[in-house]
Amino acid sequence: QELRPKSLDIKQEELGDMVEKEMASTSEAIEDAVRRIEEMMSQARNKSSGVKLEVNERILNSCTDLMKAIRLLVMTSTNLQKEIVESGRGAATTQEFYAKNSRWTEGLISASKAVGWGATQLVESADRVVLHTGKYEELIVCSHEIAASTAQLVAASKVKAEKSSRNLSRLQECSRNVNEMAANVVASTKSGQEQIEEKDTMDFSGMSLIKLKKEEMETQVKVLELEKRLEGERVRLGELRKQHYALAGTYDAVEDGEAKPAPAPRRGVLKKPPLAQKP
């Protein structure tokens, strides 16, 4: 009893109400997520264009498909729970059934909460990505969390369900669909991230003449800075090679029995030292 999570420390007669409340709350969270994604889609079309709009639409569409799959999963899970309770399992009432199977009920509540929380987090992460204030990795992590919580919900429902139950088969099918849609979110997110990173600086649509001139000057400054840094690194590489040759010549002279100073390397184009042969 001491090891049980404190959040599950509720009266057994309240468990039935908690199950219905959490499933209803999860359904509301998913419906709200679908509405928010539609709003984000509209905002993305108004505030972005070109490659960014294409990436945002692809990611948000995959998130919408995932939300629809989760909504169907929750509905099917609710139907399966009703079927399990109506089967009785030796209990007279719904409240008595949940109280008698309190451990199972608590697992069901926990799984339902996890699904609803995952859907909410996914939408918030998608919102930040569209606004360019978040990370693409957040969407990927949320997709993995949703897949995990879905598996938890299916496992919790499967414990008390009849093996021949049609609702159980439907729930397992919904779970596979959720996993597939979550994988699509991950795939669209990764491809979108690569596309943005490759072409982010090449999308000049919508820029004014003044803005273009400013970007051109800033790019010229960056080019000059990089060229100067490159020249400095080349000089550093040359000095390192000089020292390497000097030390290598000293060691060769010592091995021959006489410490002769190493010849200074010729100025001009420095060549790479020969590759060491394998013993």
Automatic annotation (TrEMBL):
CC annotations in GO: clathrin-coated vesicle; cortical actin cytoskeleton
Gene3D superfamilies, per database record: I/LWEQ domain
Pfam families assigned to the protein according to its UniProt record, in alphabetical order: I_LWEQ
Superkingdom per UniProt: Eukaryota
Coiled-coil regions, chain positions: 207-243
Localization of this protein: Cytoplasm
Keywords, sorted A to Z: Coiled coil, Cytoplasm
Any GO BP: actin filament organization
SUPFAM superfamilies registered for this protein in UniProt: I/LWEQ domain (SSF109885)
Region feature Disordered, mapped onto this chain: 254-279
Signal peptide residues on this chain, from the entry's feature table: none
UniProt keyword Coiled coil present: yes
Domain I/LWEQ: 7-248
GO-annotated molecular function: actin filament binding; clathrin adaptor activity; clathrin light chain binding; phosphatidylinositol-3,4-bisphosphate binding; phosphatidylinositol-3,5-bisphosphate binding
PANTHER family xref list: HUNTINGTIN INTERACTING PROTEIN 1, HUNTINGTIN-INTERACTING PROTEIN 1-RELATED PROTEIN
Name of the molecule in the record: HIP1R protein
Source organism of this protein record: Scopus umbretta (Hammerkop)
